[in-house]
Amino acid sequence: MAVMALDAKILTVSESVGLGAREDRSGDELTRVLVGHGFRIVDRRVVPDGTAPVSAALVELSTGFTGLVVTSGGTGFSPTDLTPEATRAVVEREAPGLAEAMRSVSPLGRLSRGMAGTIGSCLILNVPGSPSGAVESLEAVADVLGHALELLAGGRPH
Predict the structure, then answer these.
(1) CB 115 within 8 A of CB 78
(2) Which residue from 8, 33, 7 is spatially nearest to 142, judged by alpha carbons?
């Protein structure tokens, strides 16, 4: 069986990064970790907080795409943290086991409201906006991402 290419896209949800007032450190760290796990980063974008911009970006990023989309930011308790709501509005199927694994990796993970789910053959993961939280969350599920994407692309369970 041919090895499937692992493609990923990163969506940073942040007003300050979008305005150029802050560097996208979580996006940089996610890129580093994903490349280290054999992914090819095919797109990186920044959108402001809010359900409409995040939902629209997720639909655009996932349409016709087989791979992983990782969102960074907007998963906490701040009034503007609406990434899970935006994601839930567009996913077809939730993947609660992935979200639970990402939350369980550290004590602060329990404060993340991030979710995981699929749109077609695209897997979406919400991770925290802090670089350390983003990396910890991604590393918590990295070992199963290739298999999940293979199944989404129509592969058969082993």
Answers:
(1) no
(2) 33
State pTM to two decimals: 0.94
Length reported for the chain: 158
Location of structure tokens 């007032």: 21
CB 67 within 8 A of CB 9: yes
Mean pLDDT, rounded, for 129-156: 94
Instruction: List residues bridging with 43 in a β-sheet.
Output: 9
Smallest Cα–Cα separation from 152: which of 126, 102, 116, 100?
A: 116
What amino acid occupies position 117? G
Read off the amino acid at residue 103.
R
- Is 60 exceeded by the pLDDT of residue 158? no
43: part of which helix (H) or strand (E)? strand 40-47
Which residues are registered as beta bridge partners of 125? 70, 116
Q: Quick one: which H or E segment has residue 12?
A: strand 7-13
Which tokens hold the place of 124?
């979406």
Residue that the structure tokens 């503007």 belong to: 80
Alpha-carbon Rg of the chain, whole angstroms? Answer: 14
Tokens standing for residue 103: 């939350």
